[in-house]
Specification:
By secondary structure, the chain is α/β, with parallel strands linked by helices. The chain has 15 helices and 13 strands. The chain is globular, with a radius of gyration of 21 Å. The structure holds pyridoxal-5'-phosphate.
Length: 392
């Protein structure tokens, strides 16, 4: 037996169960249509909600910044200094989101693993929605605080847990996803806030799928619920609707100041690159200029969902442009995804461990980059594959 044989066995078992992820190779820029493994297909996979990943103004801003500042940030910001570009982005984001201050990270994942352990630790307790994103879960684990999972989007369950457990710990943190990425449902932030304000706990929301999607002109879930100043920490990402890459922590200035002292991915990992920061700044400009893209995203999503339901597909309980097409078994979802690709649609199967066993799906991501004829083409192909495989 070699010491890596167990890995080979695990991989074979995943393949057997239809749970092995095969990664497709893209030969073109993000957009409504993609070159995937050498074939031109309709893109229903990316989180590029507003079509900004290949927007000419954003690409131009990145190129210009490279001419002026080069590419790399040099080192971590606390040692090599911080570029004015990063500071400017943080100020612009704070205005956009109407918060006291913002700190950017290399990714949304890092923003969570930086923030949670900086706010709670051993002897403290975290109340976490049962379906929270992996990066929240990892942040919670890294913190060393006790983790109590409350029932999904259930303010009553949260309150019961707060009553029972909070008194036994020093400090508490309540954390929830804003939009749950696999089902597209929105956390009842107003109800959760009403509960948290009765207790001495910090309240944090991860708005990765709400940034650029929910609220006025894409200002996010806090804006959607009108809870400005009431949520202590907002996490966000610039890799989804903003079309670039990078994480956001937005909230009270004292928390941002603290993260600059104690957020480990901030202290021990270099900043996002120059073209990233410049591209994000251009994305904020575009969002502030007009709500056109956000409006188009929503009208596209509403059209597609309604037509899929008419065809007889189960699209779950999404309240956002995320459109899960529920299939059940992982093997069926993989077969469905393959047939879609053959017919000209890129829609990846999502199964355990990303979603619970038996709830495998194709998650369709509608964007503002799609035109009505693209959506109609997609609907036609979904109808054909759905009938061929006996799903509808
Ligand atoms: C996508 C996502 C992240 C990670 O964001 P990245 O910037 O891609 O690292 C974090 N939290 C949630 C809820 C997400 O959906």
């Amino acid at each position: 037996m070699s010491k890596i044989d167990w890995i080979k066995e695990e991989i074979a078992a995943l393949q057997e169960a239809g749970l092995y992820t095969n990664i497709r190779t893209l030969g073109s820029a993000q957009g409504a249509w993609l070159d995937v493994d050498g074939k031109r297909v309709l893109n229903f996979c990316s989180n590029n909600y507003l079509g900004l990943a290949n927007h000419p103004k954003i690409a131009e801003a990145a190129k210009k910044a490279i001419d002026e500042y080069g590419v790399g940030p040099g080192a971590v910001r606390t040692i090599a200094g911080t570029m004015d570009l990063h500071t400017k982005l943080e100020e612009r984001l704070a205005e956009f989101k109407k918060v006291e201050a913002v700190l950017t990270f290399q990714s949304g994942f890092n923003a969570n693993t930086a923030t949670i352990p900086a706010l709670v630790g051993k002897g403290d307790v975290i109340f976490s929605d049962r379906l929270n994103h992996a990066s929240i879960i990892d942040g919670c684990r890294l913190s060393g605080a006790k983790i109590k999972a409350y029932e999904h989007s259930n303010a009553e369950s949260l309150e019961e847990m707060l009553k029972e457990h909070l008194p036994q710990y020093n400090r508490g943190l309540v954390v929830t996803d804003g939009v749950f990425s696999m089902d597209g449902d929105v956390a009842p932030l107003d109800e959760l806030y009403e509960v948290t304000k009765k207790y001495d706990v910090l309240f944090m929301v991860d708005d990765a799928h709400g940034e650029g999607v929910l609220g006025t002109g894409g200002r996010g879930i806090v804006d959607h619920f009108g809870l400005h100043g009431k949520v202590d920490v907002e996490i966000g990402t610039m890799s989804k609707a903003f079309g670039v890459v990078g994480g956001i922590v937005a909230g009270k200035k004292v928390i941002i100041d603290w993260l600059k002292q104690r957020g480990r991915p901030f202290l021990f990992s270099s900043a996002m690159t120059v073209p990233d920061a410049a591209a994000c700044l251009a994305a904020v400009d575009l969002l502030e200029e007009s709500t056109e893209l956000v409006d188009k995203l929503w009208s596209n999503a509403e059209y597609f969902k309604a037509e899929m339901e008419k065809l007889g597909f189960d699209t779950g309980k999404s309240e956002t442009p995320i459109t899960p097409v529920m299939l059940g078994e992982a093997s069926l979802a993989q077969e469905f995804s393959k047939a879609l690709y053959e017919a000209g649609v890129f829609g990846t199967a999502i199964a355990f461990p990303t979603v619970p066993r038996g709830t495998a799906r194709i998650r369709v991501m509608i964007s503002a980059a799609h035109e009505r004829e693209d959506l109609d083409k997609g609907l036609e192909i979904f109808a054909k594959v759905g009938k061929d495989l006996g799903v509808i």
